[in-house]
Amino acid sequence: MKIVIAGGSGFIGKKLTDFLVNEGHDVVILSRKDKKGAANISYVQWLQEGATPEIAIGSADAFVNLAGVSINAGRWNAEHKQQIYDSRMVATDELLRIISALSTKPSVLINASAIGIYPASESTFYTEADTVIGDDFLAQTVADWEKRAALVESEGTRAVFMRFGVVLGKGDGALPPMVLPYKLFAGGKVGSGRQWLSWVHIDDVVRAIRFAIDNNHIQGPVNTTSPFPKRMDDFGKTISSVLHRPHWFPVPSFVMKAVLGKKSALVLEGQHVLPKKLADNGFEFKFPDLESALKNILLEDV
């Protein structure tokens, strides 16, 4: 297949590109810079004055939208929150314009999303059947993002919203800062420890995206999380066990709020999310349990 990726230089985008190229597909990465491609990878400029990526693309089987300012970078002040929001809307609008300009439409748009659309809760679990939306910044951003991406359906293109949980992988994403205190022998309970952490291994993220491209009856929201989420304290204890480091130094909620500001909600609050749509369609996780996922990421030759 020929697959176009927006956000191909990011944490998930790099892994997805490698995965698709290894399968023998042609990948087109939309980039603000003019770059030289490699085997089965080409770069096309977009979001620049005068750029006409639709001409260079010609046609494609699928589009994957991973573009947007990271929610993990910087404090959530008014300026940064606006950048997070606007970057997603601008990129999605441009993808909609590109697809509209193509004479042959892609069969599917896989659009990144997040489980942050659901309200935080220690007692409720969520599947794709739940339509309740949180009232905080992240939930409203995700809801607007999905609504915007859904407009592609007017072109006859299937829309899939991959609601990512906390993605775990080597060297990037949420895991390194979570592991660092344990490496320094200072790991422990964060906040109450009862908040849910719905996680997923990066390898299963890219496999789930590929699965959604292939299965043309999958559409709408797709929870992309392990079937076995953990409460934060249990998550920390598993890191402790895998690294053979103590789990003893608690970090109170007020400390996290002082350090991270409003962004502290990412670690002090959580959602218990289950990947029902993936399970119902026969997707099999490579790393369904946290211990095997952490061993694969944190330990050499596992």
Question: What this model shows, in words?
Answer:
The chain is an alpha/beta fold. The chain has a single domain (2-298), classed as Rossmann fold. It is built from eleven helices and 13 strands. The strands form four sheets. The protein has a seven-stranded parallel β-sheet with strand order 3-2-1-4-5-7-11, with helices on both faces. A two-stranded parallel ribbon has the order 6-13. α1 links the parallel β1 and β2 (26-31). α1 (11-22) packs across α6 and α3 (78-101) packs parallel to α4. The longest helix is centred in the first third of the chain and has 24 residues, at 78-101. It is globular, with a radius of gyration of 19 Å.
Output the structural class: alpha/beta
Q: What best-fitting shape do the alpha-carbon axes yield?
A: globular
- Report the end-to-end length measured between terminal Cα atoms: 31 Å
Quick check: average pLDDT?
A: 93
Order of helices and strands: EHEEHEHEEHEEHEEHEEHHHEHH
Q: Round the Cα radius of gyration to an integer and report it.
A: 19 Å
Q: Mind telling me the CATH superfamily name?
A: NAD(P)-binding Rossmann-like Domain
Order of strands across the main sheet: 3-2-1-4-5-7-11
Low-confidence stretches: none
Strand segment count: 13
The share of residues in helices is 25-40%
The CATH class turns out to be Alpha Beta
Oligomer: single chain
What number of domains? 1
